[in-house]
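Dataset card, provenance and construction

Sequences and ligand SMILES were collected as paired inputs. For each pair, a complete structure of the chain with the small molecule in place was predicted and serialized as structure tokens. The example below shows a pair involving flavin mononucleotide. Curators did not alter the output after generation; any descriptive sentences attached to a record were derived from the structure itself.
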Amino acid sequence: MKPRIEASLWGRDFGNPLMLASGTCGYGTELLEAGLLGDAAALVTKATTARPREGNAPPRIADTRFGLLNSIGLANPGAEQVVESLLPEMAFAPCAVIVNVAGETLEEYRRVVGILERSEVHVGYEINVSCPNVSAGGMAFGTDPACVAEITRLVRSSTGRPFSVKLTPNGGDIVEAAKMAEGEGADAVTVCNTFLGMKLDWRTGRPVLSRGAGGYSSPALLPLVTARVWQVASAVGIPVIASGGVWWGEDVLELRAAGASMVQLGTAVLRRPSRISEILLEMRTLLEGS
Ligand SMILES: Cc1cc2nc3c(=O)[nH]c(=O)nc-3n(C[C@H](O)[C@H](O)[C@H](O)COP(=O)(O)O)c2cc1C
């Protein structure tokens, strides 16, 4: 396919493929107030759970030489509060809103979507299956294709809105997980969440993050994410949303060439919100010169 800026997903035409990644733009309210959402096609909110969660104890973010480690622990105000006060603030946002959903049990996913269905603001969901499955000893749901299938089935039966299942790169077979999500009615898969990483203080031998390990995000992830997007896009017929490793406009074009319909910006926007517009400009300049 000829490289281009235009992008579409779920029957909706977007001016460009740029989505803001979950956990790196809150619920969009601050970026909206600062007038920074005009060039984004969509934003994905922070992971939302049934009850409010304070998240992990600090430190829960650590910078490393080449990227960021986080173990926020799904801090969020809970689905009721999101429906009552945060989503209404985004009703007139210039970009589409997608709510990221998380849970500690399979049933929690259904509960959260059930509560969120009361809002008309968001166009769909991103289902984060990288959460630890509490009843299975904390292994992420997404590492078990049967759990991915079950969560997808539960969500499908709870909403008519489109949703993407956000897959984990940490264990399990991501292609198999994507096929399971497609088979149970997901409308897209997001490839992928952060990579497991750790930073140690060599003096004490102790991890810098309070939880020990965390999720690593960095422009250095681009080739790892590109390979996974390529593999998954070759194996499923539903759209693939790329997430991970973007810093430049060129990275977005590369992920689109690998088969992504839309491309998420995470750490880049967290570090510098003006990257949304800058990346779009870089893409335009590259395409004009190609
Ligand atoms: C501070 C932080 C918080 C995050 N929180 C979530 C989250 O709540 N749900 C989720 O699905 N992904 C979460 N992510 C992962 C991002 O959405 C994204 O997939 C990942 O950072 C890779 O993209 P990047 O390299 O562009 O940052 C988080 C990432 C960061 C850096």
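Derived descriptions for this record:
Residues 7-52+77-195+219-288 form a domain with the TIM Barrel fold (CATH 3.20.20.70).
The chain has one domain: 7-52+77-195+219-288.
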